[in-house]
Amino acid sequence: MPFPDNFQELMSLRKKIILMLMFLATLSPAAEGREKEMKIALWKLPFNLPSMVAIENRTYEKAFAGEYKVEYITLPSGPKQVQAMAAGELDIAEGLGAASVIVAIANGVDITVIGANSRSPEAFAVAVKNSKITGISDLKGKKVAGLRGSVVHQLFVELLRKEGLTEKEVEFFPMPLNAAASALIAERVDAALLAGTEIIRAEKGGCRVIKDGRGIVEGLSLIAVRREFAEKNQAAIDKYLYTREKIRLETVNSSQKFIPLLKKETGLSEKEIKITLSKFNYDSRITESDIQELKKTAEYLKNENIIKLKPKINNILW
């Protein structure tokens, strides 16, 4: 049987169709999922057990296996995490301070809050070493070390206000928490604004807490997501929160098994770990109380001239 006149042309067309089908197959949802990336920053401080567990057990890598390539991005501060999100180099930040989120949004960074990371009013405190200092009013004219724009600085400003004082009436030295704790232990300053394990370190160095955040600040940290990533990966956001909740429930129901991990990460004794752990609530659901706390934080940031305009809090929630 003779071949048709256009046989070669048909064979060429057939090859083109096969190649096109092979190309289209690479664009299938499964293949597309394999190529996706999820870049996460997990903040371990001041005592973020869910993040420690997720990193140790590779929880998110396992949850998203075959869908997303999960990469952990190590960034040592909230502002650096925000900068990375603005540049599209970070998708999810777990443990980002409420102040960092609000400052970022007020400055045009398009991120959204998908949940709370922790609340810990007792984990933020003003500490002193001098036995003659018994209250906040005694700090008038004294040297105070801390990080401006942080939760504990917000606490300090509110404590001063309750005493009829302002920050201008103390000698304030801006520095990170660990440096503030060291300065207080060495008696180079009269008071330090501390959080988490730095409070315990200061207490071991002969210092004591004169006031913590109970009844004043919630010590709220958040789970923030680059908005473009959230909008394009809504199912992944739901799965992320579901996985995060599984981690939280495991830490609540089987906390004893995580003591070795916490010892490794913090250097604290089992007794110190249990006391500190009891101060944290890791529930990721945003409550009305959280929304009010965010509004208070925005007001504090505006009063401190850290932001010019307060963002509408309901608009920043996912």
UniProtKB/TrEMBL annotation:
<protein>
    <recommendedName>
        <fullName>SsuA/THI5-like domain-containing protein</fullName>
    </recommendedName>
</protein>
<dbReference type="InterPro" id="IPR015168">
    <property type="entry name" value="SsuA/THI5"/>
</dbReference>
<dbReference type="Pfam" id="PF09084">
    <property type="entry name" value="NMT1"/>
</dbReference>
<feature type="domain" description="SsuA/THI5-like">
    <location>
        <begin position="72"/>
        <end position="204"/>
    </location>
</feature>
